[in-house]
Design brief:
262 residues; alpha+beta; Immunoglobulin-like; 2 domains; five-stranded mixed sheet; binds copper (II) ion
């Protein structure tokens, strides 16, 4: 096989892989369903537009110079060295822009880390290759495994809508409650990532990382392990089912009773 056809094959494989796994990804990041995810999205858009404006200004000046100050139309280069005023201006303006971006970004990061006054604590443990959820203070804990049938993985069956993004036991959470997540791992580093909750945190063996989410809208939110953790890294999805407070209390009571009986 020639190098070109090998490269073509590689690109074709990459295209197939990405279209299936990232099928429901959009170009922009999701707005999400938590206050924090809204803030992250807002920050992302603000900084994006700052970059667009800077890009537009820099490139217009550059193209103007390339076209109208070119040697072939007889333009003479200006001969000067060290212009203190200009140097101060082009240092101070970017400095101010960076400060203006750093202030809201730092505020949001501090807020993401503020796990005080949480209503519920979930301990999340990453395993090769599944997630374990423990409702701290109750007897409810379970493993959450990939539910996509293996036949679909090896192309012996048609792929489902949520191919590789379906689990047997989703993490059930209440809306409007501050849920604290404690994250760790049992073997290698994993990362618990649910874009719509605005949560992405490494799960590291021997360490406990903390973060939180207050979900505003009931629904099903999907995520993935976001830290390359071995052969089946792409086979440990996350599914969060957000229920109303009453439905959640009912679910938790049922689970507690079932566990107590078992
Ligand atoms: Cu992992």
């Amino acid at each position: 096989m020639s190098i070109t056809s090998r490269i073509n094959k590689l690109f074709a494989l990459a295209a197939i892989y990405s279209s299936e796994v990232f099928g429901d990804y959009t170009i922009n990041m999701p707005v999400g369903v938590t206050e924090i995810s809204h803030k992250i999205h807002q920050l992302h858009m603000t900084i994006f537009w700052i970059c667009v404006v800077i890009g537009a200004i820099v490139f217009s000046v550059m193209f103007y110079a390339i076209i109208f100050h070119r040697k072939s139309i007889g333009h003479q280069a200006a001969q000067f060295h060290e212009h203190a005023t200009i140097e101060i201006i082009w240092t101070i303006i970017p400095f101010l822009i960076l400060i203006a971006m750093a202030i809201p970004a730092t505020k949001t990061i501090l807020e993401m880390d503020d796990i005080r006054d949480s209503d519920l604590t979930i301990k999340i443990t990453g395993y090769m290759w599944r997630w374990h959820y423990e409702y701290v203070g109750t007897n409810v804990q379970f493993m959450s495994d990939l539910a996509t049938p293996y036949e679909q993985v090896i192309d012996r069956a048609a792929k489902d809508e949520h191919y590789l993004r379906e689990v047997n036991n989703p993490l059930v959470l209440p809306i409007n409650k501050k849920v604290r997540f404690l994250m760790t791992a049992n073997d290698v580093i994993h990362s618990w990532w649910v874009p719509e909750l605005g949560v992405k945190k490494d799960a590291i063996p021997g360490f406990i990382n903390e973060t939180w989410a207050r979900i505003q809208v009931p629904g099903t939110y999907r995520g993935q392990c976001a830290e390359l953790c071995g052969a089946r890294h792409g086979f440990m999805p996350i599914v969060v089912k957000a229920l109303s407070e009453q439905d959640f209390d009912k679910w938790l009571a049922e689970q507690t009773a079932a566990k107590a009986q078992g």
